[in-house]
Amino acid sequence: MWRLLCIGLLLPGLVLAQGKGGRNRVRAERGDAASRKAETYPAFRDAEIRLILDFYRPGSGNLPPGIARRGEFTPGIMKQLARGKGLPPGLEKKLEPFPEPLARQFPPPPPGYRRMICGNFALLLQDGTNLVVDLVALGQ
Question: Residues of the chain with pLDDT > 90: what percent?
Answer without folding.
Answer: 38
